[in-house]
Hints:
- It is a single chain.
- By secondary structure, the chain is of the alpha+beta class.
- It has helices at about 5-10, 40-60, 95-110, 135-150; strands at about 60-70, 75-80, 125, 130-135.
- The chain has one domain (about 5-115).
- Helix 2 (about 40-60) packs antiparallel against helix 3.
Amino acid sequence: MYDLDNAAHDFPWTAVSKAGAPVEPRRAPKFNWFAGIPRGWGDVIHEYLTQLDALVQRNHWSIHIAQVKEKFGTLRFYVDILDEEGFACHEDSPGDVRQFFKLVREMESATAEVCFDCGTHENVECYGGWIHYACPACEKKLEDARGSRQS
Length: 151
């Protein structure tokens, strides 16, 4: 399973401070966008970051990540592509910009198809309360942990 802590090293454009300043790729990021993201999503996110990275490298874009979080059981990845003058490109822009945002939406949706904890695609279901997608084994572990805390 891909360790999301490596994203800043593997995809330097994800290593930006909250103010948007680039961080040296060899140094630890000032802000880890993927802290708190379920570990089970690691492989899915890595797969899509690889595709997004190809577009970023080909177009020499500056990227501003506004927020990365889990919401309603799936990933939310809020990001802007900045043109040469520093203006954000619109999602409806033609070509690679549109493809970039399409991949972001696919990545977000794909997290609903894997267990938040172990990353399996087998028998994944949506569970309520705190909305999340899990396999039966990980859901049982979660329920057992909740039960032991209430005791």
